[in-house]
Amino acid sequence: MDIAYKGEHLLPGNLGQFFIVLAFGSALFSFICYFFATQEKVAKSDNSWLRLGRIGYWLNTVSIIGMGTCLFYILYNHYFEYHYAWSYTSRSLPTYYIVSGFWNGQEGGFLLWMFWEAVLGNILIWRAKSWEKPVMTTLALSQAVLGTMVLGLQIGSAHVGSSPFLLLRNSGMQAPIFQNPDYLSFIKDGKGMNPSLQNYWMIIHPPTLFLGSASLVVPFAYAVAGLWKKRYKEWIQPAIPYALFSCMVLGTGVVMGSFWAYESLNFGGFWAWDPVENASIFPWLMLVGALHVMIVYKNTGHSYFTATFLVMISFVLVWYSSFLARSGVLGESSVHAFTDLGLFWQLVIGVLIFLAISVYLLVSRWKELPITKKDEETYSREFWMFVGAVFLGLSCFHLIVVTSIPVWNLMFGTKMAPPTDPVKHYNVIQASFAVVIALLSGFTQFLKYKRTDITRFFITTLIYLAFAALITALVVYATGFYKLHVVFILVMLCSVYSVVANAKILADSFKGKYKLAGSAVAHIGFGLLLVGALISSGTKKVVSENITGEQFSAEFAKDEDPKENLLLYKNEPLRLGDYMVTFTGDTVEGASHFFNIDYKRMKDGKVTESFTLRPNVIQAQGGMSSTPDTKHYLFHDLYTHITMTNLISTQPAAEEAQHGATDDDKNYDAPVAHEVAVGDTIPYRDGVIVLKKLNRSVKLQDIPITDKDIALGAQLEVITHGKTYEAEPVYMIKGNSQLDFGKKLEDAGLKLRFTKVIPDDNKIEITVYQQPESKKKFIVLKAIEFPYINLFWAGTIIMVIGFLLSIFRRNKEFKAI
Amino acid sequence: MKKSAIFGIVVIAVAIAVIISAYSNTSSYGSFTDAQKNNTELHVVGHLNKKKELIYDATKDANYFSFYMLDKDGKECKVVYPGTKPQDFERSEQIVLTGKMKGSEFHASKILMKCPSKYTDEKLNVTEATAQKSASL
Q: Which UniProt keywords apply (chain A) (predicted)?
């Protein structure tokens, strides 16, 4: 039955779908043309295959840009007839988040990946010269495989790819509403963006990460080209700058992700060993290893196989981590794995295609590979660089084995569960690898290629090791790090050693060996990153411990120490570490609900420092997400987030208001009447109330007061938790009736009524209503202190600078040839 | 023996050590009955018993949350978690707990919950209900 739907905007979707098919078709066409261009024994004079291949790739690039434009147009104009727009955006979403809505879904992620690959392909067409044909064959193949992921074709019962231009009514939701031709007028708004993604880091982190992963295809394509065209020795030189670029960008992308986790999520840190996080560094670890052996091969001719193997495996791992994150296989073990879009087998095929190419080429060319028969010298730089690369590979291997537990279960029908304390497991084992890697990244710098003067080497190594030990001892003592597992202290020693050894190399490079600067800087950065990560996560301290409230059961309190969440009533200061904290109020800005929390550092009863943190809670998609606020110091960060509050309710607001209106007194404890004279004090649970004086000339807004009426105001002063409030409840006799107008003090949780005048004693009666503890406004917060976290970020930035310097150097070398 | 051969053996040894340590560190998925039998930490998959109350009162103890969960065999057990109630806990469709039994209570150190994908349909149904109402008016 065909229904003529009203109000739909089908054009951008149809156009977008056309571009998707065109992108896939042109990539496939380009792949075929480049393949034949590469296979030609003698190049024809007109180079027709090559030209067709280029045209195919350019067409692919244009279609990808077209697709992106259509999708953005749909999101920007809030066309909720499209499933993608409806799922990830809403009208209230600010424009800059519409940009991140673009890659909120998996389809957008693929689009971004294809876009970067298209950009890289065009750079290669421009620059790769004799390598263009074979290298572009691989890129075009990769584009075609990616193209199938967004095709959204239905073939029989199976579907190929998931299109971002899917209409809501075709998305498989069985709702009778779609029988109504005018259904769109009932879909007023989209579901909106997951609140934890509404963060500025989500605008910049995914594009960087995707550029990093997409760029791994370039070294891979060079490795394939080298084996395919039997130009075994030549491919490494031009691939080095691209490999450096990938390491730099992918590393930056991953750390941006950890910065996002640190700033916006409640994992309580920058790295949680979540399977999806782990998956994102598999390719990085492998490629960093690969890069080192590529340099070894370039300089000495050793480690050819290892270099080729690691480059190839690192790209296969890009696909594997994409499979882990997107196939839903991690469902029970990860917080932020995507659910299956029905792409499971397609992703498996993606991994297998590139794995098969790698295995086939390595096996078929095995006998011809330039593998040296001679052993490396023990005291040579190449040998220890090789060892380091292998250990990077092993560390990655460990991550893969543990992260893939759900995959092993699926493959072998086992029922293993991830370690119960994964963080500890990963920390200890990865730290052991880090000991070796950091140590190697230090002393290998003192070795020379081929052969080294042994005595001199040992002397320098030991001097710097002693120096590093001294620094480490100081750092470990000063930060309280010595309480930790011995392996972490060893990592610390080796990281410090790496920093000082490379600092020496950097100093030498200023004296003229400028070529070494890039690697020295990158290694210093890596060492600092490790030091920062170690101190920060090793000595982070939950400052919101030691709850003062009552306990549920003494036994429970005994085993479940320490307590990390702290209850804070509005305007009641509480001690938190060195600070006095007060929850002073809350404001609503858009979808975000901000809480103002005053921090005062006290020393000898004096306030030495005072600031306000404003963590917030966002409500969207029917859920809540808490965003912390952080006070940054040079040497530590103080991080606060709200874990619970009674100010925001997930119940509809109307229902609550109704409750409130029917019987206001229910919100208070039983009233207590006090007879007082002027100057008397009424004590109550949270402070005192003082009757200052009686005001005989009260003016009330709506009630005219004549001479016959009596109106009295009781000027009260409420002192609670160091704050003073004023209130003036009014008592009045009008005609024959007695009236009184109570005053509410929301902030103090009080309601005060002036209920009686007792003329004989010259006293009046004040009735005090106070809110029970549970009705008072409160928040529950968690505050964590992260020491030396800046070393981690600084280390990352220094490492990126090191990579940049190396790229310039290698590029220059390459051009020189 | 050649140096590369020695190094190769070292690498293989490390790889085996990694697999063994990973394997010995894996825990298992089980039911509450399994948890009662052996006093080790394990993962229990199940769903929230929505009929029984969730206990979380920050004013009494901000770090005490308890609820009743049904495991895959349908066995019910009281679960205690030393922290705040996770946001949207009531809406969870499936819960994975990590922890162990203490007496008759299961003490969870970690809660991982899956929120419903069905949610999409529910919301549309709501829109639809309003649609019919406005049509009849």
A: Cytochrome c-type biogenesis, Membrane, Transmembrane, Transmembrane helix
